[in-house]
Amino acid sequence: LFFTTATEPYLMSEYSADYHREAPVKLLDRLLHHHKSTPDEEVVLVSQVLACDATLGYEDGYNAQVMAFNGTPVRNLKHLAEMVLSCEEELMTFHMEYNELLVLCTKQVRATTKEVMELHSIPNMVSKDLLVDLGDDVRRWL
């Protein structure tokens, strides 16, 4: 899974300069009109599902907001990364907008992560800014 935060530049890259007409209305409303409950709150999206054994059946999902992970509301991208990297449960359950669930086997995700990263030429599991704070957790994961 490839996660990102919803920003106007991101929406422009996904939906063109006319993103205010093309992007999902609910996403636009949340991004442009929602009042943050905390200063660090972000709209976190699954922007792409990279096909592998762990994501079988979810390949068509993209640009959907992640509301919670294993029942815990997602505050921002760093918070989601922390929860995923420290997940000890058998299943990873991503509660998405529109009451959809994305459920993955934790062991299978861990087993396929490095291979998927190599296949898609992804140099790091998280962005450089998150790597500064989460580097040790990322190294343990891989």
What this model shows, in words?
By secondary structure, the chain is α+β, with helices and mostly antiparallel strands. 41% of the residues lie in helices and 20% in strands. It is built from 6 helices and 6 strands; from the N terminus they run E-H-H-H-E-E-E-H-E-E-H-H. It has helices at 8-15, 19-22, 25-33, 77-85, 106-119, 128-141, and strands at 2-5, 44-48, 64-69, 72-73, 91-96, 101-105. Strands 1, 2, 3, 4, 5 and 6 form a 6-stranded antiparallel beta sheet that branches. The longest helix is centred in the C-terminal third of the chain and has 14 residues, at 106-119. The two termini are 15 Å apart. The relative contact order is 0.14.
Give the uncertain stretches in residue-range form: none
What is the straight-line distance between the termini? Answer: 15 Å
Report the portion of residues in β strands: 15-25%
H/E element sequence: EHHHEEEHEEHH
Tag the structure with descriptive keywords.
142 residues, 41% helix, alpha+beta, 6-stranded antiparallel sheet
